[in-house]
What we know:
The structure holds two protein chains of two kinds.
Chain A: E1 3-7, E2 13-20, E3 28-34, E4 42-43, H1 45-50, E5 65-66, E6 72-73, E7 75-86, E8 92-103, E9 114-116, H2 118-121, E10 125-129, E11 132-136
Parallel strand pairs in A: 3-9, 4-8
Antiparallel strand pairs in A: 1-2, 1-11, 2-3, 2-7, 5-6, 7-8, 10-11
Chain B: H1 6-24, H2 26-33, E1 36-41, E2 44-49, H3 52-59, E3 67-71
Antiparallel strand pairs in B: 1-2, 1-3
Amino acid sequence: LPIIGTRCEGEVFYIATLFWSQFTNEWIRIRFLVDTGSTFTTLSNFDARKNNINYKALESDKVLAEMGDGSEASTRTLDNCVIALPTEEDVHLIEQLDKVKVFDKIEKGRPQSSFLGIDILTRFRISFEGDLIILEK
Amino acid sequence: MPKFTEADSDNLRKFKKESELFHINYTRLKSKYKGQFVAIKHNKVIDHDKDLDSLTKRLGKLVTSLLVEYIPEKKAIYI
């Protein structure tokens, strides 16, 4: 069954998911922006803090992440994560990720979104239908 | 692999629906809550604030079960 995301304000597409890692130890709600320009699936600092993910217990990554606007951002890495993605018939598809990045800093002004990166998106064929994004195996 | 229970499945269904409704109602929300963070439950804004920390502090543990999003003042493009 295809995974369905929706477009927000005629702009980008988001997929509502449940996310699990050893640092959450429970399924938490994360709304990911679908970002084919992102190497890794990444949690925004806001989503991490909101869900009490103790990411500061992890070491900062040695390599800075290059952002779309040319700036650099410090990240940390969560190992062995799992994402439950919703399908159009309200069943779910489970995908595992060895690594998920977390933005280290609190965003000022407009907060960063959490990104669903190509580490997971390449597992799917992506198509668009009106305000829907459709991910199929 | 963590267990994914019927309650989790229900949570995902609700989150997907809330997210879809947020996108459908975005223009209306933008006219009222521009430049603010909004906390939404059952398609209703239950709290809002310009300061994220103040909002999350007020919401307490409830924050994880809500859709909390920022409504930008200006229309943004992503490049």
